[in-house]
Amino acid sequence: MSTTDQPVNANKALWEKGDFTRIAAAMRESGDALIERIGVTPEMDVLDLGCGDGTTAVPSAQRGANVLGVDIASNLVAAGNARAQSLGLTNLRFQEGDASDLNELGDDSFDLVVSIFGAMFAPRPFDVAKEMVRVTRPGGRVVMGNWIANDPTFVAQLLRVSASYSPPPPEGFISPVTWGVEEHVVERFTAAGVSSEQISCDRDTYLFTFDGTPSAYLDEFRQFYGPTMNAYAAAAASGREDELHAELVELINEKNTSSSDDVTEIPAVFLRVTVSV
Ligand SMILES: C[S@@+](CC[C@H](N)C(=O)[O-])C[C@H]1O[C@@H](n2cnc3c(N)ncnc32)[C@H](O)[C@@H]1O
């Protein structure tokens, strides 16, 4: 229990721990390109769930949609609102909320619910699917981007290695990367009242582009990305920090496709899920 006697929300604490804006800085171009592919148009009401500081919410608003970003991390909500203000985007605002329970949002409120590597990290995936469908208007869409269990590309491997050095999760924990497995996706959305014909899953790719060497980029994850920070802390406590670091150095070098010494480019495959509501 915390000092205020509220149980600690481990999901919230994980994402408030670091500073995901540092990681998101390398994702902006792919976020913009994805929003273009999804087809966000002026006047659409868009919910971006697990929005971080707006990698996809900002380009949605820049295309004229009315956008609400919801995220569990208060630091990222504040960073998103600061970005919206500095970009003069009056059609974009961010607020705190939990993808597993969107009680502050009404039924049938949005034409499009976007969640790119966001809602997949919330607990209770069946509730998450139900909530995303509930707030989407009939005729609207839910689009998720989810990292894929056992995928060989960078992020799935970073999460796998990080988890393997972290303390075991609490009983009943469902791995976020199960959202990248089609049969789980279908099971969750059909339980939310959608038929399987309304669900489609395609592989897509994000490109992470960082101005610096792979080892400088790894340092960003080590210092600012909650799951990797936790892994380094646990590895340090068990005397395995050097082993973890060596494994991640090898991983990031292997996945870097840039031919320049000063730039790191890492493609990462994800499952793009589209649900027609
Ligand atoms: C990998 S980041 C992606 C952020 C953003 N979508 C992007 O592409 O830059 C995961 C995000 O999901 C948020 N998140 C995790 N659990 C959540 C939950 N239960 N409800 C809402 N947001 C959540 C985190 O705070 C974080 O901003």
Describe the structure.
With 277 residues, this protein is an alpha/beta fold. The protein has eleven helices and seven strands. The protein has helices spanning 10-17, 20-24, 28-38, 57-62, 74-86, 125-135, 154-165, 182-191, 214-224, 226-237, 241-255; strands spanning 45-49, 66-71, 92-96, 110-116, 136-147, 199-211, 263-276. The protein has a seven-stranded mixed β-sheet, with helices on both faces. The radius of gyration is 18 Å and the shape is globular. The mean pLDDT is 95. S-adenosylmethionine binds at residues 11, 15, 20, 24, 27, 31, 50-52, 55-56, 71-73, 76, 98-100, 116-118, 121-122.
Which terms would index this structure?
alpha/beta, 277 residues, 41% helix, binds S-adenosylmethionine
Give the gist of this structure.
Helix content is about 40%, strand content about 20%.
Proportion of helical residues: 40-55%
User: Main sheet, how many strands, which sense, barrel?
Assistant: 7 strands, mixed
Number of strands: 7
Mean pLDDT: 95
Which regions have little confidence, pLDDT < 50, spanning 5+ residues?
none
| Radius of gyration based on Cα positions | 18 Å
Shape: globular
How does the SSE layout of this entry go?
Blueprint: H1 10-17, H2 20-24, H3 28-38, E1 45-49, H4 57-62, E2 66-71, H5 74-86, E3 92-96, E4 110-116, H6 125-135, E5 136-147, H7 154-165, H8 182-191, E6 199-211, H9 214-224, H10 226-237, H11 241-255, E7 263-276
The structure holds S-adenosylmethionine (SAM).
